[in-house]
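Field log, afternoon session.

UNIT: design team B
ACTIVITY: writing a sequence onto a fixed backbone
BACKBONE:
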C-alpha cells in the first residue's frame, strides 16, 4: 500500500466521524468478542474460547458485524448512533473483494425508514467527496457523486435476466416450494447450475449473482431497492407485496452497503433467529442467543446501514482490489 492510500484511509475515517458528529449521532464502541451472535445461515464466524483460572470457560466469537450490540443500545434508548469497527467472517474465499478481517461503518437512525437512510447516505457521500477533493484529490468525483441511480430488484431482473420477479416470488410461505421449482427451471434456462430441491432463495441468488449483478450499470453509484421477502433478513416487509424494505448500494459494480428498515416486531425477530439457527447445521453458532434477543425488546422504529469501509476506500482511490487499500492483507500471511 502506498503512503497516499494510507492518508486516504485516514482522511475518509475523519470525514465520516465529522459528518455524523455534525448531525448529533453518538459514536459507540461495542465488543468485537461476543458470547453469542445473530444467527445468519450465510455467514460462518471465527470461534475462540475464554479461559479463567477459577471460573468455567466459555465459547466466544469474533463479531461479523456490530449489529446485535448496536440494536441493544437502540432498545435502551441511545438514539441515533454510528460506529467504525473491525468485523470478521470465516470460510470465505480470499480475493480482491474479500478479507477475513475488514472495516465496517454501521449507522442507525431512529424514527426513520430505508428511504431516509438512502438520503442520509447520499449526504455522506457528498461530504466524503468534499473532504477528498480538498485533501486527497482522486479525480473520481463524477463517478461517486449523488444522486445515486435507483433500480428496483424486480426491474433489474426484468432488464438483465428477462424474468418477471413479481410473478416468480411467492406471496405466502406455503407457496415457496412451488415458486422455488419454477424459479429453478428459469435459472436452468439461463444456463445456470441448479439442483433439484434448491430453495427459492438459492435459485434467486444463482440468477442474481450469475446474470443480474454482473450486468448492473457502473457509471455512478447504484441502489437496488425492494429485495424479495423470501431472501430472509431482519428488514420490515412491504405490506401486500412480496418485497421488503431493503436496499443495497453498488459502487463501481461492487456491493458496498446494505440497508434495512429494521424489523421491530419481537415475534418476527424471534422467528427469524429460530429459522436461521436451524439452517446452520455445520455452523459454529447453532442456537439463537435468547438472552441477547430479550435485550432487543423495545427496539424503536429505525433504519440501519452497514457499509464496507475498505470497499468504499477502493472506490475513492480507484483501486480494484482490497489488497491495495488494507495495510496488512490476510493473504500476505498465508503460505505460498
Amino acid at each position: 500500500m502506498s503512503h497516499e492510500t494510507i492518508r486516504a484511509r485516514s482522511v475518509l475515517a475523519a470525514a465520516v466521524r465529522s459528518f455524523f458528529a455534525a448531525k448529533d449521532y453518538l459514536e459507540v464502541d461495542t465488543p468485537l468478542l461476543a458470547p453469542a451472535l445473530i444467527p445468519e445461515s450465510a455467514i460462518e464466524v471465527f470461534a475462540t474460547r475464554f479461559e479463567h483460572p477459577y471460573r468455567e470457560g466459555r465459547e466466544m466469537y469474533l463479531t461479523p458485524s456490530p449489529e446485535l450490540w448496536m440494536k441493544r443500545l437502540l432498545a435502551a434508548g441511545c438514539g441515533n448512533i454510528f460506529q467504525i469497527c473491525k468485523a470478521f467472517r470465516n470460510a470465505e474465499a480470499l480475493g480482491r473483494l474479500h478479507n477475513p478481517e475488514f472495516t465496517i461503518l454501521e449507522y442507525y437512525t431512529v424514527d426513520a425508514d430505508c428511504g431516509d437512510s438512502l438520503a442520509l447516505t447520499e449526504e455522506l457521500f457528498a461530504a466524503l467527496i468534499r473532504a477528498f477533493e480538498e485533501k486527497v484529490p482522486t479525480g473520481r468525483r463524477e463517478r461517486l457523486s449523488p444522486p445515486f441511480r435507483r433500480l428496483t430488484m424486480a426491474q433489474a431482473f426484468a432488464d438483465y435476466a428477462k424474468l418477471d420477479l413479481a410473478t416468480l416470488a411467492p406471496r405466502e410461505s406455503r407457496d415457496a416450494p412451488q415458486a422455488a421449482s419454477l424459479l429453478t427451471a428459469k435459472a436452468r434456462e439461463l444456463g445456470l447450475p441448479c439442483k433439484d430441491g434448491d430453495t427459492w432463495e438459492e435459485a434467486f441468488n444463482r440468477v442474481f449473482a450469475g446474470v443480474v449483478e454482473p450486468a448492473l450499470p457502473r457509471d455512478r453509484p447504484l441502489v437496488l431497492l425492494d429485495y424479495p421477502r423470501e431472501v430472509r433478513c431482519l428488514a420490515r416487509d412491504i405490506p401486500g407485496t412480496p418485497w421488503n424494505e431493503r436496499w443495497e448500494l453498488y459502487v463501481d459494480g461492487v456491493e458496498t452497503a446494505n440497508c434495512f428498515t429494521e424489523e421491530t416486531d419481537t415475534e418476527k425477530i424471534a422467528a427469524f433467529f429460530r429459522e436461521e439457527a436451524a439452517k446452520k447445521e455445520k455452523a459454529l453458532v447453532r442456537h439463537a442467543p435468547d438472552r441477547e434477543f430479550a435485550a432487543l425488546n423495545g427496539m424503536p422504529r429505525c433504519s440501519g446501514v452497514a457499509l464496507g469501509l475498505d470497499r468504499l476506500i477502493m472506490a475513492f482511490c480507484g483501486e480494484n482490489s482490497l489488497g491495495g487499500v488494507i495495510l496488512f492483507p490476510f493473504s500476505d500471511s498465508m503460505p505460498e
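LOG NOTE: The longest strand covers residues 101-110.
NEXT ACTIVITY: expression trials, pending approval
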